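Hi R.,

As promised on Friday, here is the backbone we talked about, encoded as structure tokens. Could you run it through your design pipeline when you get a chance and send me back a sequence?
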């Protein structure tokens, strides 16, 4: 029996916080998957088959400061109450397992997939990709219209940081209805976008890196459905930096 969207989300959220391997193993089962690297300098890439394709980005690693908060890595006890998902034993890992779950649910749409490691440790995986894997670095910037990363807190934000033009920002606002609070900070797309624009979309989590991390299901579902509609369009324009 096919898993529904919430089942897939819960599967990714139940993966252990301290180990990204289950995420990579899941995506490695997709035909054409390329896995390179070790430890935090690691990524998985799947080239899409659409003519006008987008690169979908998420990171497999997650982080919370268990030493500061006096917790240890314990088995997750995930529960949903009043439309909010939490982990009884501490952090949830929705940053960025919830993003990985959305990409898994979009995997049949013909777009490319990039799962990185080490985003929480200074973008180690994406930097290694760009510096040492020039074939993939060239492919992601030459063969795609733009990048969408699914790794943003809150429910209706987007951020382009330093890798979005005003035309692209207006396009994202039109397609999502989301707003951009500022241009500050960075994530993997800041490293990955060399020739094309990129955007990071909210996926509904809050309290990341703390025992109070939680995810609002309706917000996660909303971003998933926005991406389904948006990425199903026949014509997706290219936005150059």
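Update: got your reply. Pasting your designed sequence below so it's all in one thread:
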């Amino acid at each position: 029996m096919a898993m529904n969207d919430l089942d897939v989300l819960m599967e990714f959220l139940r993966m252990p916080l301290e180990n990204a391997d289950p995420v990579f193993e899941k995506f490695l089962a997709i035909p054409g998957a390329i896995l390179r690297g070790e430890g935090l300098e690691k990524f998985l890439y799947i080239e899409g088959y659409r003519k006008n394709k987008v690169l979908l980005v998420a990171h497999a690693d997650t982080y919370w400061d268990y030493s500061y908060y006096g917790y240890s890595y314990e088995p997750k006890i995930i529960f949903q109450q009043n439309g909010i998902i939490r982990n009884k034993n501490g952090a949830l890992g929705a940053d960025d397992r919830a993003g990985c779950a959305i990409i898994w649910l979009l995997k049949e749409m013909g777009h490319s997939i990039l799962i990185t490691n080490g985003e929480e440790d200074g973008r180690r995986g994406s930097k290694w990709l760009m510096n040492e894997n020039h074939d993939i670095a060239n492919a992601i910037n030459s063969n795609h219209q733009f990048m969408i990363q699914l790794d943003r807190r809150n429910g209706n934000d987007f951020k382009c940081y330093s890798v979005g033009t005003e035309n692209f920002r207006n396009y994202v606002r039109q397609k999502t209805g989301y707003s951009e609070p500022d241009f500050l900070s960075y994530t993997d797309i800041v490293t990955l976008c060399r020739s094309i624009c990129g955007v990071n979309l909210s996926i509904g989590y809050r309290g990341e890196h703390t025992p109070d991390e939680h995810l609002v299901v309706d917000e996660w579902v909303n971003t998933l459905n926005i991406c389904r509609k948006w990425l199903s369009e026949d014509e997706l324009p290219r936005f150059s930096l």
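One thing I noticed while checking it: Residues 63 and 120 are 7 Å apart (CA to CA).

Thanks again,
M.
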